[in-house]
What does this fold into?
Amino acid sequence: MQSKLITFFPDALISWRLFSVSFVCIWLFFSSSCDRYSAKPKCSEDLTARDLGNFSIESNGTAFNQVTGLTWYRCLAGASFTGDSCQGAGLLMSWNEANRFAVDLSEKSGVNWRLATKSEMQGLVQPSCNNPAFNTTLFSAIGSVNLWTSSSSWKYRNDYACTVYSYNGALSCRQSKETLHPFLLVTKLKTRF
It folds into this structure.
């Protein structure tokens, strides 16, 4: 009887130690990975109206990034900039329709508008805030939507393209090109119209 008790006790001790180590490892994993889900302030509350970053605001409804040389239309495509705000709703289009819209607008306006690449869109993301994760002084009427990029998905399937979720800046390249999403327009030239 005594030999059974001695052999049982070391196994229980090893099991308890294994459980303790596992518990600590799991706790450390979850406590360190929770940062991306931690509460962040709204960008409209976090950024002041004078905080334009690398941008200058033009009177024609565009914002010029002095570092990248890109000019962004400040409203979703289809909305118009009047006074100091966007009027109307942005268009919801498939990926192909959105790219065609940019080509048609370019032909009519003489300005080479296009959808931004995924890296250009992610360059707009404000990592310190969300809801939306964009500078709301520059882009006040975006809301929380998936925005098309010009980037197609090479990793998953040909009929997928990439979007940036404006709420938190998350990139997804698993969006069916047939899904309807709004989009922003960008050009490389500083526009004067």
Summary: The chain has four helices and ten strands.
